[in-house]
From TrEMBL:
Principal place of residence: plastid
Keywords: Chloroplast, Membrane, Photosynthesis, Photosystem II, Plastid, Thylakoid
Subcellular location: Plastid, Chloroplast thylakoid membrane
Protein name per the record: Photosystem II reaction center Psb28 protein
One BP annotation, GO: photosynthesis
Subunit structure: Part of the photosystem II complex.
Length: 179
């Protein structure tokens, strides 16, 4: 399939019609004009004059939306309870653990209609940090608390986690207290 697309690209590139136009190469595969499902990056040859290609049809608007930092146990459902967070870090600073404790979390109220807890998700502008180390504590047969652990194995993981916590604490009015 790829060989056929490449042969079509070579046939078009060698045609007398294409010889009059500036040469354009598509990185990695055949051109979109050949009905290939691959949409590569166009590369202009140096030394050739560039002509503007008119775009027809659609216009694209770029919208930058800020994501409010959130914690979720069920994807798509934000946890409303603000956690108590304990941090530990190794002496050499290479790894650490964050333990989140949620007393009477709202996920217990909504899990009946939304489903089971699937993990621990920390969502912000940069993406999602996740863990599956989640445990529920029961008192007299009723769910009372959720504890979630997030392990950071590299200084980069630690820095990313701290950026999330800074955003989350600003959005929820939390403060850092060193013990």
């Amino acid at each position: 399939m790829a060989a056929v697309a490449a042969m079509k690209a070579l046939a078009v590139a060698a045609s007398p019609v294409s010889a009059r136009q500036p040469r354009r190469y598509v990185a990695g595969g055949a051109s979109r004009r050949l009905q290939s499902p691959f949409h590569g990056v166009s590369v202009q040859c140096p030394g050739r004059p560039r002509r503007a290609t008119p775009r027809r049809g659609r216009q694209v608007a770029v919208v930058a939306a800020a994501v409010r930092p959130a914690i979720q146990f069920i994807q798509g459902t934000d946890e409303q309870t603000i956690p108590d967070v304990r941090l530990t870090k190794s002496r050499d600073g290479t790894n650490g653990v964050a333990i989140f404790t949620f007393e009477q979390p709202s996920v217990f109220d909504s899990s009946a209609e939304l489903g089971d807890i699937t993990g621990f998700y920390m969502i912000d502008d940069e993406g999602v940090l996740q863990s599956v180390d989640v445990s529920a504590k029961f008192v007299n047969g009723k769910p009372a608390r959720i504890e979630a652990k997030y392990v950071m194995r590299t200084p980069r993981d630690w820095d990313r986690f701290m950026r999330f916590m800074e955003r989350y604490s600003q959005a929820n009015g939390l403060q850092f207290v060193k013990n």
